Amino acid sequence: MRSWSLHFLAGLGLLAVLLTCCSAEVNYCHAFSSGSCSECLQAGVDCVYCPDETFNFHRCDLYKNIIAHGCNDRSVIRAKSLQKIEKKDAINVALQQSQVSPQLATMTFLPGESKDLDVEVFAPTKGPLDLYILMDFSNSMKDDLDNLKKMGNQLAEVVKELSDDYTIGFGKFVDKVIEPQTDMRPSKLKQPWPDSDSPFSFQNVIKLTNNVDSFISKLQNQRISGNLDAPEGGFDAILQAAVCEDQIGWRERSTHLLVFSTESAFHYESDGANVLSGILPRNDELCHLDADGKYTEATKQDYPSIPTLIRLLGKHNIIPIFAVTNHSYTFYEKLKEYFPIAEIGLLQEDSSNILEIMRNAFESIRSKMSIRAEDRPKAFGAQFFHPNNTVAEYGSFNFKPGQIGKFKVKLTAQQMIGETLVCKMDPDEKEGTIRVKPTTFNAAVDVKASILCPTCPCEKTGIPKAERCNGNGKLVCGKCQCDDGWQGPFCNCSKASESNKNQCKGPNMKEPCSGRGDCQPCGTCVCYNPDQYEGPYCEYDKTQCQRYGGFLCNDRGSCVMGRCSCSEGWEGAACECAKNNETCLDSNGNICGGRGECVCGRCKCPESKMEMSSTCELQTFEYQQGSCEITRSCVLCQAWNKGEFKDKNCEGCFKVVMVDKLKEAEEVLHHCSFRDEDDDCTYQYTIADSKGMENEDLLVEVLKERDCPPASLLWLLPLILFLLLLLALLLLCCWKYCACCSSCWQSCLALLPCCRRGRMVGFKEDEYIFRQSQLTSNHLDTPMVRTGPPKGTDVVRWKVTDNVHRAPNHPQALLQPNPDEMINFPVSLRLNRLFSENLSRLDSKDAELLRKEAADNLNEVYRQIPQAQKVQDISFRTQKNSGKREDYTILDTVLSAPRRSYPDIVKLTEKNVQSGSFGDLKVVPGYYTVATDREAAGAVEFQEDVELVDVHVPLFAKDDDDDKKQLLVEARDVPLGIAEIAKRYVNITIIKDHATTIFSFLQPKYTYSRKDGMAKIPISREIIEDGRSQVTYNTQDLTAKNKKDYKEMQGDLSYGPGETTKIVYVPLLELSEKDGFLEEKQVKQFIMDLSNPRQGAKLGRYPRTTITITDEPEPSVMMFKKATQNFSRLDPTYSIPVVRSRNEDSPATVKWRTKKDPRFDLSGILKFAPGETEKYITIDSKAHPGLIQQDTFQLELLEPSSNAAIGERKNTIVNIKDGAVPRSPEIAQTQSKGYESPKCASPGGLLLPPGNLKSKATGPKNIRLNWDSLQNNILGYKVKYWIYGDPEKDAQVLDVKTPQAELTNLYPYCDYEMRVCGYNAFGDGLETDVVSCQTLEDVPGEPGRLAFNVISPTVTQVSWAEPAETNGNITAYEVIYTPMDDEMKPVGAAKKVKIDNPKKRMLLIENLQSAQTYQYKVRAQNSVGWGPFRDATINLASQPARPLSIPIIPDVPIVDAEAGDEYDSYLMYSSDVMKSPTSSKAPSVSGDDYMMNGKWDQGFLFPGGSSTRNLSASSSPMSTLSSNYKGAGGSFTTETHTTYMSGPGSPRRHEMIGGGTHTTEVHMRKRSENRGYPEENIRDSIVMGDVTNQFPDLDARLSPGVPDTPSRLVFSALGPTALKVSWQEPHCEKDIQGYSVLYQLLNGGETKRINVTNPAENSVVIHDLLPNHSYLFKVKAQSQEGWGPEREGVITIESAVDPKSPLSPMPGSPFTLSTPSAPGPLVFTALSPDSLQLTWDKPRKPNGDILGYVVTCEQLHGGGDLRTFKVNGDTAETSLTVPNLTENVPYKFKVQARTTQGFGPEREGIITIESQDGGALSQYSNQSVTRREVFQMPTEVTTRTNVTHTMLNDPYFSDGMMMTQLTETGGMVSRQVTREVVQRGVVGGTTVTKRMFYES
Length: 1896
Prior knowledge:
- The strands form 33 sheets. Strands 42, 44, 45, 46, 47, 48, 49, 50, 52 and 54 form a ten-stranded mixed β-sheet that branches. A seven-stranded mixed β-sheet has the order 111-110-113-114-115-117-116, with no helix packed on it.
- By secondary structure, it is mainly β.
- Helix content is 12%, strand content 38%.
- α5 packs parallel to α12 and α16 (716-738) packs antiparallel against α17.
């Protein structure tokens, strides 16, 4: 009883405090109230602890709360930190060196605490300077080195200008001395170029010195070196120059500058980890220079990364200056941005301006200073401030050299890092010495910072057996720590005592803890959901307090203990009453207009005949202008018995008071004066409040005296008539004598005073020009002025037209909009009502009432417009510069209607404005605006004495606006007034700023439950250029309604620098009981829009998102699966299934227990995860032996979770029987068939395969499996899944406990196979059959590399590779190209081209702007949507020498960049680019030959035109060249064998040369040669040629002694841009004197010639070729008799290229040679020991359209039947599965294409499936696959090459597998090429090389 009373009293006390608290705020200290005192102090800087014994509130709280709740101030425990300046020497400006003050400080921080430190810095005007020049010594920089040598003295002078105390040093670099970076031939290693040094990585040549003469002398001795690939190893050099401080000679207190000079891009981390060079370890960031200053570890470790360089240069205070040429400027410009301080200069090609770059860079560096906090522990943050406390972005300051600069640094200790309290972190993460310093300084402020984690002294002096703890515990810091066996707040409950649940019941309660919590010992209730339930007995629901307007506690308080605890300033049962009277103030600041009473924040107005506002202001007179006009008739009637009400006896009029003198204007509401037309008298009266008068609302006082004119004016009438006659006579005379001259006529009129020019109106300016970023809204207030007599009113109508700069034939101008399209018409009106502050608040009552009134009346008027919708988005504002109407309310709204309705809407609006009302809504005549998305019309009013008004002109800002657009505003006419229009037009020009920020929702839709209470909508900001930006958001109703389902939200979001995400919170409202019953069952949705992005921002992918509100779902139903369960006494466990239905996607729980059995009591909880439909109650019979003795017992389900219910089978009976339990008929049948396995048998029964296995793809990466559950003591299930085609042994296994599984992280659009088996204590059961399922498609990845074939400065061909992850079937590509400026910002409209044929992955673009940089972006589309862009930027004119390239092929889409976006068809051909041979209509094919009826037509762009050859047979040699290569995992060697054979066909060859026919015999011979070129380390080679023969006919035509054609060409790739061309000496009767090699791009260009004067040399090496470009080579020999015929060959070096660097190959990427090839090759995949899959590629150049293929298969050595397969179709890759083969028997396959012209050449392949151990093929142990391929054309010349290749760790086969490949080829071509594709991969530590041979 005592514990119950204590508990009750504590609850009442807590209730009282909470109810008296003004606001229920939560602070982080409360979370530690249950912990110790030390944990409280360590929680945060503001947390204090109260140790008072009698303190019953949060012991850990904020200090003010602790004191307010009664804690003794002296006993409060708090912690304090420390800040101390240890050393502070003043700055000595006379000392010319970098200085800081103070020098040393010590600070301790509490978690979450911040401390400031004032710092002074000083940079000398000419301080010490260390200048180190690091120069690229590759051969291309030879002229740069020569110039630098010449400028030695000038360099010294520049350095002296920069500093009086200087040193200067020099270093050089090239690249790693290893392939492919360096030519590894011995001759090239010795001297890569004439007069050059050996290659090297980096060498420190001249240590920093002040001896200029010595520097110049050493510099003169330097020679250039060289390497192969374009990027250089400069990063290695920079790192060594930074970390080798002693070797380089950096001084401690000097400014360190490093000038980096190059013309090439850079290698960076992972370029050295490629398999070609074999360098794997990361850079160790240590110094590795030998005695000669050379870098010794270049070939042993990788290049450094960019972050590494930034960190190390900052650590050593080195500022880089990049002096680079235009060729690589863009790369280093981006690199520069990553450094705190760095400079870049554009180096001329010969480096002649390097000194100027150094001088300018140093001056720029001196003007900047970047402050950093180095060596900062993880738990600290730093921020820098200017002296005026404004934040310094990125620590950047502009301190002038020679002056003391001041700044403030704020260090902040974090409270938590992630989820870890900072005091729980490692010591090195929360303490250390922080160095605060400028980036260029060595000097720094050392701050010894540490986080203080205090402990409480009271924890060491606890009181044991304390009385407050009932003698059962220790009192520590005011709290009881109970002894063992005791529990409770005061240790008054024994753990051994039985729990009495009655203690958890309050008065009149039937269930413990109100059924909402668990009853703990000592009668303490722990609520199930503390966020919803509270109180000593969980009796209070936090959602059940009173509501106001649908909001819980009016959203002005919180629900505490069943009552609303209101926020400060609010009161009432539902916090509906404001304590102040601000909401009762009228527009004059009076409370309720002086008439009413302010009750609960609202005015209670007296009853009145006059309409009053919500603040008791008289609506008729105060808020509606025109009170004098309205009262005029009544005043005339009441005071003078005149006017329109005279006959009605002044019915309905108010009373007036006649006075002799009117009150002053300040004392009344209005002073009225009017002239009566009947008697021409002027009447005056005033209107005032009727305070003090009974039953009257107004006090109208009328002046008794009228102002009437004298009556004796009739004598003027004759005079007036005489003057009129005289005027008529004068006009007649003028007309008579001046009819022939219009100017004379006008002059006469001008003589008349009444006809002189009067008032003029017009625009103030002729033109306005704005940048888009300068505009803060989508309107511009354009001033219009009036001159002349200001008396009277003029109304001017105006209109504005968008995009007047576009010519009539502009593509956008030609596009006519759909007249039936529904568009928004913004409408603006001026209400006859003064504007008040309440109208600016959208949630105010006044604004809400006026919006409703306006909407009702406007909708009624605009109903006349066909298909018009209701108005929306009504808002109110004022309009500045609108004359005497500035204080009137402007109404803005939007009307949706068909576009064709625009003229009707304008007319209807103007009509109602002129009438002064829209229904009952009063408006002021003379003002309106109606707009569309491209034009607008309106009117403005000049009142009397007004000379200037603003026209509110819409600007029609759209994303597709041109970069520079114009609007024309025209003053149309003056329908009311006498003014004439002077300046009629004004032009508004808007220049588009390219977005610096893109705003977007993260996804197009969200779903929230009403129970969430709040929808949290993130708004993402993509930062292009960092800074500040803003965007507007607002919600709109769909099916969900504002204030019924949610609360409308709108406003502006401001993002600061670096901010990327903000969240908008939208309150979701609960349905009232009435709404819950009556609400229709439809989906509740509303939308949120983004609009009006500002400060350089624009809207992105999702400017609108849809929010769906879900009501409480139907509860899950849980019950036992069976009413009765049977088990054996031998079963080790009993598993009783519980199933769940409905609402399976949410978690749910249910309790279970044994029922009605006093001998034992078992219970537990089942927890269903989302998606789970079945769980098992598992009872261990061994742990409960009493169960085994039982015959039967009963289980029941109870207490389901709040979102669940219990079904009909609430109970189940469990029967325990002796012996084995009878099996089901299905199990018995399975056993009879012999399926029972020992491992699957158990006393409880056999585990059969689960039945009804089903799979369903639920997403691109997800598959859901379901199957029937198993009984028999099942412990779980194992799900095996693997990719279709992979061996099952490689499957992944997923262990689940329920009969369903969700497979995740799968590949999109991929076929998977799956099996399932159950398992129990005895092992795995039988598996199901395999089921297959394909995951859904996903958007594709970005396309492969972009390549450019630069045809001319205005024409390029862009191509791309298919995305590596297509994630489906690619259906289209989109190419976007945009002109860019030097800052990489768009300067023109982006052009889009969609390519619907996914096989055409290239586009030819013509008529680009010359010398203009363009950005090209390509993305792919599949059925899901568009993937990400791949982009590249290139300027065609500036890079003619090394663009990326691929050959132009037929059927390439071509677009004209100047033709706009609309094309009839972009699939066309360019006659200027694709030149056809002999004027053929078909475009030529670069690198391909055409064969038509045995005739090969080939066109080359050499001078002299094309040649034609007729060929019937030729020899076809094949040679493979390879180098000896030793990698990390093995050594591979191949030897070359070339065989020439004559086939069984005609032995004659006919060649048409110069009009004559030559016939020759083809002799058969065999030649073997061993030419591996080991000294050249050749990577890839291709041989072209034929047999050297005797040509009788040719000899008859050629002069004796003229050389023959060189018999063979050998192309050897030395790198992605380097090629060796070799040839065999031709037959000649006289001595060869030399050779000539000509080469040129196949698609045109300059022809280059290399003359070889030494006849002993039969090869040349050509550098600087373009990767992926086809070249035509011609080689001929010369004797004294003249030049012989040429040998020709077409070759391409294929290499991957960097899309960001379109001038260079990808560093370290493989490169291969290729030439036009034949169909194939054949690819064999063994599926089993007796079946395989055969795959082949479509022929690149078939003769006609392919109809299908014929495949034949036969045993190679005879035996068996010839099998034929027909395959239909024309796909890029075709496959065929061939069954019923025999192991260890070689088979020959032939594949032949069937085309519209007949059958093409055959591709042969020979394959043997060998099984050396007889094992299953799937094991791949000791397997060998022997494969031979034959390419057979219908001619008879064959070349055979045998290559045996043993591979280690081949990725396609397991260890120990050998593949032997034999290739036979035949051909009918004049030039034969073998293509060797080299694929390499790193597996573990082993390098693997695979070679496949293609041949044509």
